[in-house]
Write a structure and sequence with these properties.
Arc Repressor Mutant, subunit A, elongated, 2 domains, mainly alpha, 58% helix
Length: 213
């Protein structure tokens, strides 16, 4: 069944954590949040984590090691990595690192319809985004500074370095677009309707494309 399992960042995180030691789901979630990995892996919803763990177990990539019973806590199931899970973890890791994928984030999708706003409205909302990005960049730089002070090896901070670089690049781009908008970049409904009429057969987005010959 391991070949049928669809890899995901959360599934990879579970397998990676179990490389070190058997864990129960609550401990996995706490560790990911404690290490700041919840900024790149969605572990906010515990139901998603339990669903992923169940599927990994059914696929034979992890297995129940034992169940902990303590009067102070609910019963907890501790999982361990199987050999198939160890192989899958390495395969997924190398594949995710080597192969870029179109992950359909929200921002580019929204940009594709930004013309529904006026240039002034677009500038205002992008200025709001730029302010949020500056805050995120400051947080990322604080993490980098703390890691440097703690003398942590660079390899454990690769995701933080990447996040900081991506935030910085996006901020530069957004600020450039805002400057263009404030500097006179504009569009109008009439202009967009003219483009639509020119590019779409008959101006009708539902009409079929012309057939060859």
């Amino acid at each position: 069944m391991e070949r049928d399992f669809r890899q995901s960042p959360l599934a990879l995180a579970v397998l990676s954590l179990l490389h070190a030691a058997p864990l129960h789901p609550y401990a996995m979630q706490r560790l990911l949040k404690f290490w700041g990995k919840d900024s790149v892996i969605n572990v906010g919803q515990r139901a998603n984590l339990y669903k992923t763990i169940k599927r990994l177990d059914q696929a034979g990539l992890i297995a129940v090691q034992h169940t902990e019973r303590d009067q102070q806590y609910p019963e907890r199931t501790v999982y361990e990595l199987t050999e198939a899970g160890r192989r899958a973890c390495r395969d997924w890791l190398t594949d995710m690192l080597a192969r870029p994928r179109n992950e359909f984030p929200q921002f580019p999708a929204a940009l594709s319809f930004i013309m529904l706003l006026s240039p002034a409205e677009a500038a205002a909302v992008l200025e709001e985004r730029a302010a949020a990005l500056r805050g995120r960049l400051a947080d990322a730089e604080a993490v980098t500074a703390a890691a440097s002070n703690a003398k942590l090896p660079r390899v454990v901070l690769a995701d933080d370095d990447y996040q900081r670089a991506m935030i910085s690049a996006e901020l530069t781009w957004v600020e450039g677009v805002v400057a263009d908008l404030r500097g006179g970049w504009t569009w109008s409904r009439e202009e967009l309707e003219e483009v639509s009429a020119r590019l779409l057969p008959g101006g009708d987005p539902l009409s079929p494309p012309p057939t060859a010959g």
